[in-house]
Design goal:
Layout lengths: L14 H4 L5 H9 L5 E2 L12 H14 L1 H5 L8 H10 L12 E4 L1 H13 L5 E4 L5 H8 L4 E4 L2 E2 L2 E2 L6 H4 L4 E4 L13 H11 L6 E4 L23 E6 L11 E4 L2 H12 L7 H11 L3 H27 L5 E2 L7 E5 L6 H10 L2 E2 L1 E2 L12 E5 L5 H17 L2
Parallel strand pairs: 1-13, 3-4, 3-7, 7-8, 8-9
Antiparallel strand pairs: 2-10, 5-6, 9-10, 11-12, 12-15, 14-15
Length: 398
């Protein structure tokens, strides 16, 4: 029988599956695989920061000294020495985090999915920033929440906006306080304190998603909300931005009663995060490697960011504005109101430049005259060239 004679099965999909949509960013990344495209689209860390040789040495030691344990099934909660390292890392300012509060996840994206499984019911309110991380919207949307956008400004979430009317019935508040994806903004200390105080009496958890916190260009991180209200904040961390995303090792720090339910949810998902990659992470970081490695990432990203800001200043016409991030990987651009960044993207790709339109980052009431630029994987000369092309397209629409 010829393959063309075979018909695709007409199986009935679940209502949930029928509602699924592709990630706008992932679809754009397919285009950016062409070598001629200058891509400001993907939020990918620079491969220049991957400590490949150190990981190879770590893998060799693990496979020499404990191959059976590294390649065998293991506990859902995660590799105990890695959980202990994380607990000690976040035990600061008199706060004592226990290893029993740490769950190792397969990237922080899985952490978001597990929280959605455990906390969100259909049509239950989920509070999010305006705009917010697209990956969080994708994860939580699987569980059919009703999104409520929390008031924000150029400094991030406004705690005073968390009124009883706005937060009534909410299952969680999701926030990225450090160099947020997509806006690059950082929540000031006084707002962190106010949000931690809010969390201490709220009948739902505040999620502090912090993949970029170590990437402040000055090397002066602000205190976490976890350190201010450890019994009321659910903290998400990851090794993707400080080691390598291909390892897929993240973690959740939360009160034990929530960890218990998250462990049950994870058992039904993937049993446990790969034993081998957990051990590689621990072997690499256990002797203080991050304290010398992360500053090199900060310097690289700071230089890349300065190149992008200089190019924006040099080429963009009047009426276009953008933030000046103090860390992280993103610049958020506001275009004149009449410009739709999704349509602009089509023209930009034709000129071999890519970015991410801002609309998909809004849970409700999207602002289509916004876009996100990531600068960390593009050399300064290419940044200049790509921004010049993009600015020319923008200028033509004003």
């Amino acid at each position: 029988m010829d393959q063309s004679d075979l018909k695709a099965p007409t199986w009935q999909l679940s209502e949930r599956a029928r509602k699924l949509t592709s990630s706008a960013i992932r679809e754009i990344l397919k285009v950016t695989e062409r070598p001629e495209v200058i891509s400001f689209a993907g939020g990918l860390p620079s491969p220049a920061t991957f400590p490949a040789e150190r990981m190879r040495e770590a893998a060799d030691r693990i496979l020499r000294d404990s191959p059976a344990a590294a390649l065998q099934y293991s506990a859902t909660e995660g590799y105990p020495p890695l959980r202990e390292w994380i607990a000690q890392r976040y035990s600061v300012g008199g706060v004592q985090i226990r290893a029993s509060q740490v769950l190792i996840t397969t990237g922080s994206q899985q952490a978001l999915d597990l929280l959605g499984k455990v906390l969100v019911c259909p049509d239950s309110p989920v509070l999010v920033e305006t705009p917010t991380y697209l990956g969080a919207l994708q994860s939580f949307s699987m569980y059919e929440p009703r999104y409520v956008q929390v008031p924000t400004d150029e400094q991030g979430l406004i705690p005073e906006g968390l009124t009883p009317e706005l937060t009534r019935g909410a299952r969680l508040l999701y926030a990225q306080p450090n160099f947020q994806n997509p806006t690059g903004r950082r929540l000031p200390v006084e707002r962190r304190r106010a949000l931690a105080e809010f969390a201490s009496t709220a009948p739902f958890p505040v999620i502090e998603d912090d993949p970029y916190g170590a990437l402040d260009y000055a090397g002066e991180p602000l205190p976490t909300m976890l350190s201010m209200a450890p019994d009321h904040i659910v903290y998400l961390g990851s090794f993707s931005k400080v080691l390598a995303p291909g390892l897929r090792v993240g973690y959740i720090i939360a009160p034990e009663e929530l960890i218990f339910k998250l462990v049950q949810a994870k058992q039904a998902t993937d049993l446990h995060t790969p034993s081998f990659t957990q051990r590689i992470v621990h072997e690499v970081i256990k002797d203080g490697f991050l304290d010398t490695h992360v500053p090199t990432i900060r310097e690289l990203y700071r230089n890349q960011c300065e190149a992008m800001l200089a190019a924006l200043e040099r080429y963009m016409p009047e009426g276009v504005s953008w933030n000046r991030p103090e860390g992280g990987m993103f610049v958020w651009v506001n275009l004149p109101a009449q410009i739709d960044s999704m349509k602009l993207l089509e023209e930009a790709v034709a000129q071999n430049v890519a970015f991410v339109p801002g609309g998909p980052f809004f849970a409700n009431e999207a602002r289509h005259n916004t876009l996100r630029l990531s600068f960390v994987t593009v050399p300064p000369a290419k940044i200049d060239e790509g921004v010049a092309r993009l600015a020319q397209l923008v200028r033509a629409k004003i």
